[in-house]
Amino acid sequence: MALHATSFSVHDLVNLPAKTAAASKDSGLFGVSLSDHRKVGFSSSSRSKMEFTRKRVFGAQAVATTTPAVIRATPEGKKTLRKGSVIITGASSGLGLATAKALSETGKWHVIMACRDFLKAERAAKSAGMSKENYTVMHLDLASLDSVRQFVRNFKESRRPLDVLVCNAAVYQPTAKEPTFTADGIELSVGTNHLGHFLLSRLLLDNMKQSDYPSKRLIIVGSITGNTNTLAGNVPPKANLGDMRGLAGGLNGLNSSTMIDGGDFDGAKAYKDSKVCNMLTMQEFHRRYHEDTGITFASLYPGCIATTGLFREHIPLFRLLFPPFQKFITKGYVSEEESGKRLAQVVSDPSLTKSGVYWSWNKDSASFENQLSEEASDVAKARRVWEISEKLVGLA
Ligand code: NDP
Ligand code: PMR
To answer: Which of 119, 310, 326, 334 to mutate to test the pocket of ligand 1 (most atoms within 8 A of CB)?
Structure first.
């Protein structure tokens, strides 16, 4: 059963007018307000109306937004760099939203907020004070491979350049007794956090290759809790991919385990395993593509952002005590704002262009190249995760 499997039609149709609104403010065609979205019905007749609108919208947009050259001349003849174009998954809250805000405030980036809940994302952008011309919300449900493919099609049709892709979205189910599944019948945490992003990154790689931006980057958010070379990574249950028999079996709970290592379902471990996959995937991308494409592949641990929605499924007592525990005991706490600045640095700081790096920050908030655990830097495991994942998402 799909937990977050939304039908493409509802979300995608809702997405269309505003997806283009920020892109083409001046056209007058796309200035659809939130209240207008709510009024849209989804009967078959309104659906076909919307589909008609969609064709017109894309047609107009294609004319308006052909890929611009990276350097533009102002009317006074001064040369400026065009705005960077960055996709951030899960930008409707927490780290993703804080990063979107930080980047949009520079005026140098257009942020594509790739989110499963369109209205939540729009509201979040508004309440963060992001100005319309600096962002576009597009629908993406990483718990559905069809939705990932549809997102990629929509993005390609928009003809925007892609300079940076940030794989940030995640789910964490520490209290789940039973597994839940993506639309494709894959255990939800690994399906969303790793496989959805794996397919997305693979399908968008060509767009990044084509970018003329000075620094192209693919960033996959990792975590300390997937690294068993740290105290935090040794809090049970520990991440461990084992021989990956469960992953190879498709994590479907029918003829295979729902856990990568083939063990019994454990939501907290599934999340940590998914983060190991994220960090391994970043390095495998680096080995396969960095030299030929010049794309920077990076991962990071942004600090413990103890107040985000990631812990929404945890017990209330945990949610109450976790922030002070991290603030005063481990001292690993960072605010959402600070974490957003850190990830924004990995997106755009000219000094963070080294590829294959797992970034962390010290007590003075200075970035440094961190060491991954033995498992999270295992070359053979990275290759195997890549090869199995390719099969599971239909690329091999
Ligand atoms: P949040 O829950 O605030 O953000 C997660 C985002 O992912 C939300 O926007 C959520 O959407 C989105 N999301 C979840 N499922 C899907 C899906 N199926 N399709 C599309 N989007 C989805 O948590 P954080 O900001 O804390 O987490 C962001 C990243 O930071 C994660 O990768 C996490 O692993 C990492 N991280 C977090 C740490 C922390 O201490 N919080 C520490 C280390 C790493 P919606 O708003 O609709 O729920
Ligand atoms: Mg941790 C320096 C010590 C440190 C740090 C930086 C973290 C970060 N944690 C640390 C220590 C401890 N934690 C210790 C000693 C304990 C036992 C009391 C502890 C417990 C704990 C729990 C139960 N910690 C947790 C949980 C969670 O449910 C969180 C989790 O694992 O989410 C996957 C979590 C976290 N601790 C962190 C960070 C960053 C998290 C959550 C975020 C993540 O990895 O995405």
So the answer is: 310
How distant, in Å, are the alpha carbons of 42, 207, 229, 279 from that of 202? Answer: 32, 10, 29, 15
Q: Distances in Å between the alpha carbon of 77 and those of 71, 144, 214, 236, 240?
A: 11, 47, 21, 60, 57
In tens, the pLDDT along 24-38 reads 323 322 222 223 333
Tens of pLDDT, residues 83-126? 999 999 999 999 999 999 999 999 999 999 999 999 999 999 99
The CA distances from residue 123 to 45, 98, 183, in Å, are: 28, 14, 26
Residues making up the chain, counted from first to last = 396
Catalytic residue numbers, as ranges: 271
* ipTM score of complex: 0.99
Mean predicted confidence (pLDDT) in 233-238: 98
pLDDT at residue 324 in the model: 98
- CA atoms of 300 and 288, how far apart (whole Å): 20
| Ligand 2 pocket check for 66: Cβ under 6 Å | no
User: Is the CB of residue 304 below 6 angstroms from any atom belonging to ligand 2?
Assistant: yes
